[in-house]
Amino acid sequence: MILDFKTLAKEYGTPLYVYDFEYMRAQYCALKEVFGGEKSLISYAVKSNSNLSVIQNFAKEGSGADCVSIGEVKRALLAGVKPYKIIFSGVGKSDVEIKEALELNILMINVESEAELKRVESVAKTLGVEARISIRVNPNVDPKTHPYISTGLHENKFGVEIDIAKRMYIYAKNSSHLDPVGIHFHIGSQLTNLEPLSEAASIIADLVRSLKAIGVEIKFFDIGGGIGVKYYGDEELIDLEAYALEIKKAIKGLDLTIVCEPGRFLTANGGYLLTKVLYEKQNGQKRFTIVDAAMNDLLRPSLYNAYHGVELLEEKESEISTTDIVGPICESGDFLAKDIELPPLSSGDLLLIKSAGAYGFTMASNYNTRGRACEVACDDEQGCRVIRRREMFEDLIDAEKLYLQGE
Ligand code: LLP
Fold first, then answer.
1. Which residues pair with 208 in a beta bridge?
2. Ligand 1 lined by 149 (C-beta under 6 Å)
3. Is there a catalytic annotation at residue 384?
């Protein structure tokens, strides 16, 4: 949809996250459609953007949720996701989290180690229930993405090797407090190459077959998330039809529900960070454009050297030159874009940081006692509205001020 960013900036101030709910829904529907003809569940990876209204936008379409903390599970439930569509993953779940997840009766807990399997069993025993679990298998496939977001190699902390997974499934099958219903893999994020995904899917599907032969009947084939998106605009991306086809091919002959956990694919390009120029300065040969958003609002450039497109929302005739877009945070690593071409800018000019809908607000912090930005959602039906108000100074000190000591 067409968004009037200038009016939004005037109305809600900056820095401002703006989400296009129409775009996000369209992405959801496109993915759901390619798995048509198969039993499938799209479980939105809440970590990419966990605003309650964003989750609700997907839940209304029938989405489930992929969560990595009990906090995310509770967000999903609050936003209207059905418990039987929620998966709880992560390498380090605490007893309290496992207990709450079991009490909430979610679809399954995704177990990532033998030690954790025993822990889930013992908590389930205490509660007198049978825990539905899946096991995250690490297929040792190189996803060919940024090392920080690669997860499917043995050198990464995620999942368990095939042999260990087998042992765990047999253990679970023989336990009266564990019900091994699913299998899971997720080899990395921002994947732009189909080959590693299809290789991983075949490896895991073969494991499902060998488990079936020993009486372990898997029902949910969870292929994780990771579908890459355009940041630069000219990347070759995974073709969704081909992706679905590879998965269907891998599991041919098996009676499985395909579970997919997209995050970035659904949200990245449906989100923008709107920021205002404060000043420009020149340090020797180097030009800096200082804006009111910073690494605490959008960490990806600083953390991964990630590229986010920047668009100037003003008409300017003057000659362009190279500049770094930097924030007010007290760190040299605080930048949103480097070496981009822009005309000279004045205080109050607006810049749009693109592809900011995924891992933008969710990775924001209060560093330098900066309140987190306001979030606004737009769709055809309701227009634009606040879905999280800007954080105020009071919000930031609320949990501390009680403990101040007197004179
Ligand atoms: N499922 C599992 C088990 C995951 O670990 C992840 C992401 C997803 C699904 C969703 O992946 P997606 O579809 O969004 O690629 N902060 C990083 C990304 C970290 C991803 C962690 N796991 C970034 O800003 O690029």
1. none
2. yes
3. no
